[in-house]
Amino acid sequence: MKTLTLEIPDKKYQFFKELIKSLDFVKEVGTDKEPGKEQIIEGIREAVSEVKAIKTGKKKAVLLKDFLNEL
User: Fold this and answer.
1) Angle at Cα 34 formed by Cα 49 and Cα 47, nearest 5°?
2) pTM of the prediction?
3) What CA dihedral angle connects 13, 15, 21 and 26, to 10 degrees?
4) 14 found inside a domain
């Protein structure tokens, strides 16, 4: 089996999804722009855990200006 990665314009995305659903030999694995429910929940859990660690002093917070300077 081969894997193909495509970039589809936002306005054509829904049409393309419907098109590939009609092809019985295509298996949709996922997209990189639309995280699943589990990925979203896991991200929130990690964020809450990090905030708790900062509040308890186990982790040091980064100043916004320092964070922006790193970008």
Assistant:
1) 10
2) 0.47
3) -50
4) no
**What is each CA distance from 22 to 18, 26, 51, 54, in whole angstroms?**
7, 9, 45, 49
Position 13 in a domain: no
Summarize pLDDT for 36-56 with one digit per residue, the tens.
788 889 999 999 999 999 999
| Domain that residue 62 falls in | 36-71
Domain count, the chain: 1
Render pLDDT for 27-41 as a digit per residue (tens, 0 to 9): 776 666 667 788 889
CA–CA distance, 53 with 35 (Å, rounded to integer): 25
In a domain, residue 65? The reply is yes
